[in-house]
Design goal:
This protein has helices at residues 13-17, 20-29, 46-53, 81-88, 98-109, 112-117, 119-135, 141-146, 148-158, 168-176, 185-211, 217-223, 233-263, 266-274, 276-290, 322-325, 360-377; strands at residues 33-35, 40-43, 58-59, 138-140, 225-226, 229-230, 296-301, 305-307, 310-312, 317-321, 382-383, 388-389, 398-400, 402-404. The chain has 405 residues and is of the alpha+beta class. It has a single domain, classed as Orthogonal Bundle (Cytochrome p450). The strands form five sheets. A five-stranded mixed β-sheet has the order 1-2-10-7-3, sandwiched between helices. Strands 4-14-11 form a three-stranded antiparallel β-sheet. A hairpin with an 8-residue loop joins strand 12 and strand 13. The model has no long low-confidence stretch (mean pLDDT 94).
Amino acid sequence: MGDAPAAFDPWSPDFVADPYPAYAELRARGRAHYFPASDQWLVPRHADVSALLRDRRLGRTYRHRFTHEEFGRTAPPPEHEPFHVLNDHGMLDLEAPAHTRVRRLVSKAFTPRTVERLRPYVEGLADRLVAGLVADGGGDLVARVAEPLPVAVIAEMLGIPEGDRRLLRPWSAAICGMYELNPPAVTARRAVDASLEFSAYLRRLIATRRADPGDDLVSGLIAAYDDGESLSEQEMISTCVLLLNAGHEATVNATANGWHALFRHPAQLAALRADPAALLPTAVEELLRYDTPLQLFERWVLDDIEIGGTVIPRGSEVALLFGSANRDPAAFARPEELDLARTDNPHISFSAGIHYCIGAPLARIELAASLAALLRRAPKLRPAAGPERKPDFVIRGLRSLPVEV
């Protein structure tokens, strides 16, 4: 196992536009590759990524077992503290026993019934958004459908008043900038500012819901109680931010990436239009696999691990390459092909193990609703111009996708 090949360059626009040839080279060269530029071990194969997501020798944090010094890492700069307080109290960045407690309590509020109750709202909103796009003869699919749908849904779920919802997407985008590799100082400043503003907003919303509970997720988080335990205010704030960020960033990108893929595979799009009822369930899963919205997920190595004969020592960081794993020929037949009828599809776009995406059922409802509405109301939907891609690699998607009907 050597260093990652030069083809792996997450800051290159050409690589971000199509990372899949570099992934194929990584998989062919071995199971783990050191990448000096981010001081991480890249893991490209499906079997390894899937196993490591479930391996408790790795963690999203190390602070439950080690100090920064004991782990051989430097503490984040003090000026970044508001971001880390917000991020580190969400269940995505907790490990047991804190993760177990928080996820159990959040699950009491975020139930299958809660999600299913949103289905008519999701489908109705998708239909209205697509109707508006069609009435205008087309437009930017990202701005008109892909973005507003999941943002409105999670805001509805949290009980955020409609007049405040315009604040959510900019806050989320600023915070998510910190999940890219080696974010620059300006990105960190924006994330800190957004963390402070979003936290203050949610603190006020939680106070309002304490005084006057409603039928919303924030009220449910306040009421969640189990074995004498409840969520702290910071855990509630961090949970709300996590649900917003994770609950729409991936869906926005999956929708835009998905349509971009469909436009490049006209025979598959024609098959979907011919029989949407039959193909829609597998199409959602295949689009999530084919062009994965979250390309990379990081884990700290808490105890030495060995991958393919290479020992990766405690204190290292591994970058699990979801996008590569989802194109691994060892796990998928003809992985480079878009096959909307694919049934054997063990994609890991929602992660796995204890950090499996709690919002996966809602994301699937949203993706199916927007796909169905566009297929029904815009049966001749086609690109009006080339897409504009965002520069980000980890949370990878399009800034715009102009279409006409």
